[in-house]
Protein backbone atom coordinates (compact mmCIF):
# COMPACT_ATOMS: atom_id res chain seq x y z
CA UNK A 1 0.00 0.00 0.00
CA UNK A 2 2.34 2.72 1.22
CA UNK A 3 6.04 3.23 0.69
CA UNK A 4 8.55 2.97 3.48
CA UNK A 5 12.29 3.41 3.62
CA UNK A 6 14.15 0.26 4.57
CA UNK A 7 16.89 0.16 7.11
CA UNK A 8 19.76 -1.85 5.63
CA UNK A 9 23.06 -2.83 7.24
CA UNK A 10 26.14 -3.93 5.27
CA UNK A 11 28.41 -6.61 6.75
CA UNK A 12 30.85 -9.31 5.70
CA UNK A 13 29.89 -12.97 5.79
CA UNK A 14 32.22 -15.73 4.58
CA UNK A 15 34.42 -13.25 2.65
CA UNK A 16 31.34 -11.87 0.85
CA UNK A 17 29.73 -8.49 1.25
CA UNK A 18 26.20 -8.90 2.57
CA UNK A 19 23.51 -6.25 2.90
CA UNK A 20 20.82 -7.19 5.39
CA UNK A 21 17.52 -5.31 5.16
CA UNK A 22 14.73 -5.72 7.71
CA UNK A 23 11.42 -5.91 5.82
CA UNK A 24 9.10 -6.14 8.80
CA UNK A 25 8.16 -8.54 11.51
CA UNK A 26 5.73 -10.21 11.87
CA UNK A 27 4.26 -10.54 8.38
CA UNK A 28 0.89 -11.97 7.65
CA UNK A 29 0.61 -15.15 5.58
CA UNK A 30 0.46 -14.41 1.84
CA UNK A 31 1.84 -10.87 2.22
CA UNK A 32 3.45 -9.46 -0.92
CA UNK A 33 6.21 -6.90 -0.78
CA UNK A 34 7.93 -5.11 -3.67
CA UNK A 35 11.40 -3.77 -2.89
CA UNK A 36 13.40 -1.35 -5.06
CA UNK A 37 17.04 -1.13 -4.07
CA UNK A 38 19.75 1.20 -5.30
CA UNK A 39 23.27 -0.04 -4.66
CA UNK A 40 26.51 1.81 -5.09
CA UNK A 41 29.35 -0.56 -5.91
CA UNK A 42 33.00 0.54 -5.87
CA UNK A 43 36.12 -1.15 -7.22
CA UNK A 44 34.63 -2.17 -10.56
CA UNK A 45 37.93 -1.73 -12.43
CA UNK A 46 38.74 -5.43 -12.00
CA UNK A 47 35.16 -6.76 -12.03
CA UNK A 48 35.26 -8.02 -15.60
CA UNK A 49 32.18 -7.70 -17.77
CA UNK A 50 29.59 -8.28 -15.01
CA UNK A 51 28.95 -8.46 -11.29
CA UNK A 52 26.67 -11.01 -9.65
CA UNK A 53 24.20 -10.41 -6.83
CA UNK A 54 22.69 -13.28 -4.89
CA UNK A 55 19.34 -12.40 -3.34
CA UNK A 56 17.64 -14.48 -0.67
CA UNK A 57 14.80 -13.96 1.79
CA UNK A 58 15.51 -15.22 5.30
CA UNK A 59 12.87 -15.66 7.92
CA UNK A 60 12.60 -16.79 11.52
CA UNK A 61 9.74 -19.03 10.38
CA UNK A 62 10.58 -22.62 11.35
CA UNK A 63 8.77 -24.17 8.38
CA UNK A 64 10.59 -22.33 5.58
CA UNK A 65 13.35 -20.10 6.99
CA UNK A 66 15.16 -19.40 3.70
CA UNK A 67 13.92 -18.87 0.18
CA UNK A 68 15.77 -20.17 -2.84
CA UNK A 69 18.73 -18.01 -3.87
CA UNK A 70 17.96 -15.74 -6.81
CA UNK A 71 21.02 -14.84 -8.90
CA UNK A 72 21.04 -11.47 -10.67
CA UNK A 73 23.85 -10.80 -13.14
CA UNK A 74 24.40 -7.11 -13.90
CA UNK A 75 26.60 -6.21 -16.89
CA UNK A 76 29.44 -3.78 -16.23
CA UNK A 77 30.56 -1.49 -19.00
CA UNK A 78 33.44 0.89 -18.43
CA UNK A 79 33.14 4.24 -20.10
CA UNK A 80 35.96 6.66 -20.70
CA UNK A 81 36.46 9.22 -23.42
CA UNK A 82 40.06 9.73 -24.54
CA UNK A 83 41.18 12.94 -26.19
CA UNK A 84 44.46 13.48 -28.04
CA UNK A 85 45.77 17.05 -28.18
CA UNK A 86 48.79 18.13 -30.12
CA UNK A 87 50.77 21.17 -31.13
CA UNK A 88 53.96 22.06 -32.94
CA UNK A 89 56.58 24.53 -31.81
CA UNK A 90 56.87 26.74 -33.84
CA UNK A 91 53.26 26.49 -34.99
CA UNK A 92 54.22 27.10 -38.64
CA UNK A 93 57.46 26.51 -40.48
CA UNK A 94 58.38 27.40 -44.06
CA UNK A 95 60.95 25.06 -45.56
CA UNK A 96 63.08 25.99 -48.57
CA UNK A 97 62.04 24.23 -51.78
CA UNK A 98 65.54 22.99 -52.62
CA UNK A 99 67.25 22.26 -49.33
CA UNK A 100 70.05 19.72 -49.08
CA UNK A 101 71.84 18.67 -45.89
CA UNK A 102 75.63 18.70 -46.14
CA UNK A 103 76.94 15.16 -46.68
CA UNK A 104 78.14 13.52 -43.45
CA UNK A 105 77.42 16.52 -41.19
CA UNK A 106 76.70 15.76 -37.53
CA UNK A 107 75.71 19.34 -36.67
CA UNK A 108 72.06 19.62 -35.73
CA UNK A 109 71.54 22.95 -37.51
CA UNK A 110 72.70 21.40 -40.83
CA UNK A 111 69.72 19.05 -40.81
CA UNK A 112 67.02 21.72 -40.96
CA UNK A 113 64.85 23.78 -38.66
CA UNK A 114 64.01 22.38 -35.26
CA UNK A 115 60.30 21.58 -34.91
CA UNK A 116 58.99 20.09 -31.70
CA UNK A 117 55.71 18.17 -31.69
CA UNK A 118 53.97 17.80 -28.32
CA UNK A 119 51.08 15.38 -27.84
CA UNK A 120 48.92 15.03 -24.74
CA UNK A 121 46.55 12.14 -24.19
CA UNK A 122 43.73 13.04 -21.78
CA UNK A 123 41.11 10.85 -20.16
CA UNK A 124 37.90 12.84 -20.03
CA UNK A 125 36.26 10.13 -17.89
CA UNK A 126 34.07 9.16 -16.29
CA UNK A 127 35.99 5.87 -15.80
CA UNK A 128 39.68 5.24 -15.36
CA UNK A 129 41.76 3.68 -18.13
CA UNK A 130 44.79 1.44 -18.22
CA UNK A 131 46.72 -0.34 -20.93
CA UNK A 132 46.20 2.43 -23.48
CA UNK A 133 48.30 2.18 -26.64
CA UNK A 134 48.90 5.18 -28.88
CA UNK A 135 50.43 4.60 -32.30
CA UNK A 136 51.88 7.76 -33.81
CA UNK A 137 53.18 7.73 -37.38
CA UNK A 138 55.51 10.56 -38.42
CA UNK A 139 56.60 10.67 -42.07
CA UNK A 140 60.36 11.09 -42.35
CA UNK A 141 60.49 11.27 -46.14
CA UNK A 142 58.31 12.81 -48.85
CA UNK A 143 58.80 11.84 -52.47
CA UNK A 144 62.23 10.36 -51.69
CA UNK A 145 63.45 13.57 -50.02
CA UNK A 146 63.91 14.10 -46.29
CA UNK A 147 60.88 15.67 -44.63
CA UNK A 148 61.42 15.20 -40.89
CA UNK A 149 64.57 14.02 -39.19
CA UNK A 150 63.41 12.32 -36.01
CA UNK A 151 65.92 13.35 -33.39
CA UNK A 152 64.50 12.24 -30.04
CA UNK A 153 61.43 10.96 -28.29
CA UNK A 154 60.51 11.84 -24.70
CA UNK A 155 57.61 11.08 -22.39
CA UNK A 156 56.21 12.28 -19.09
CA UNK A 157 53.88 10.67 -16.61
CA UNK A 158 55.10 7.08 -16.37
CA UNK A 159 54.48 6.12 -19.99
CA UNK A 160 56.47 3.59 -21.95
CA UNK A 161 57.43 4.28 -25.54
CA UNK A 162 58.96 2.14 -28.23
CA UNK A 163 61.48 4.10 -30.26
CA UNK A 164 61.00 3.97 -34.01
CA UNK A 165 63.81 2.38 -36.04
CA UNK A 166 64.45 5.65 -37.95
CA UNK A 167 65.13 7.70 -34.79
CA UNK A 168 68.32 9.78 -35.23
CA UNK A 169 69.87 7.45 -37.85
CA UNK A 170 72.96 9.70 -38.36
CA UNK A 171 73.54 10.06 -34.60
CA UNK A 172 73.40 13.87 -34.75
TrEMBL record:
Keywords: Glycoprotein, Integrin, Membrane. It holds the Pfam family Integrin_A_Ig_2. GO terms for cellular component: external side of plasma membrane; integrin complex. One of its GO terms (molecular function) is integrin binding. The keyword Membrane applies. One of its GO terms (biological process) is cell-matrix adhesion. It is found in: Membrane. Residues 3-76 form the Integrin alpha second immunoglobulin-like domain. Its main location: membrane. The keyword Transferase does not apply. It is a single-pass type I membrane protein. Residues 83-172 form the Integrin alpha third immunoglobulin-like domain. PANTHER family: INTEGRIN ALPHA, INTEGRIN ALPHA-IIB. This is ITA2B protein.
Amino acid sequence: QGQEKLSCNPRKENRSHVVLCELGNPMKAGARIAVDMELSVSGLEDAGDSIVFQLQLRSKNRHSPNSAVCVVKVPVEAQAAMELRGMSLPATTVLPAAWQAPEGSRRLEDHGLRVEHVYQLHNKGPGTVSGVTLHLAVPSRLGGSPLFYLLELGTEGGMNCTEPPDLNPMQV
